[in-house]
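Retro notes - structure team

What went well: the batch runner handled both jobs without manual restarts.
What didn't: labels got mixed up in the shared folder, which is why I'm recording both outputs here explicitly, each with its sequence directly above its tokens.

Job 1
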Amino acid sequence: MSNAPDRYLSWRWEDESDAERLVYKPDSKKPNAGTFVMAKEDHTLGNLLRMQMLRDPSVRYAGYRMPHPLIMECHVRVETMDSKLTPTQVFIISEEII
């Protein structure tokens, strides 16, 4: 007995209407940075997106983190060199390639 959630909840969507699969949180201090929070994702997609974003020469920083092993969320942080290319544009380009 443990307080871990059931394993099937890590990949299965119980109620589609309540869940936000992808949320973008812009950085309040830097206009060309932000964090994407992806629900029900793990290190696999986080690392793929990070590596693909770092291939773009206009990206200054790209990284991901998992807040807790029992929380199935992946936070991907992106910062671009200037405001010509926004983090959402970099995310879309990287996601299309993967």
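Job 2
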Amino acid sequence: MTRKESEPNDQALRPRAGGFVVINLADETAKHRQTMASNDRQAVSLVKDGPLNVLLMTLKKDAELSEHRTRGPITVHVLSGAIRFHAESQEITLAAGCMLALDRDVAHSVTALEDSSVLLTTAIA
């Protein structure tokens, strides 16, 4: 199943049993940026299937996600821009092309150092 240009992105896709889904991240990111309006951040689930959630997050420069924890492990993949990721008394800058994996229940926060797009994958049972 491939998302077509004419299809709205109003709900996450779920692969059919034994099937797959193809999503063009560049197209999804461009569409997402056009709908940001005055918000400093916006997120949409691209794939949601049981415990798996793949979320596209767009952050304007200086947008912050305050400290929080997740019930399951996550990965954070920076598609464009750069973010500062803070966890366990450590700060790391992640630029486009970098990915970070974080275990469940670790307090963390994020600050966008520039306009950024991030692919967040969670696995919460």
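One thing worth noting from job 2: Strands lie at 41-49, 52-59, 64-68, 74-80, 82-87, 90-95, 99-102, 108-112, 116-123.
We'll revisit the folder naming next retro.
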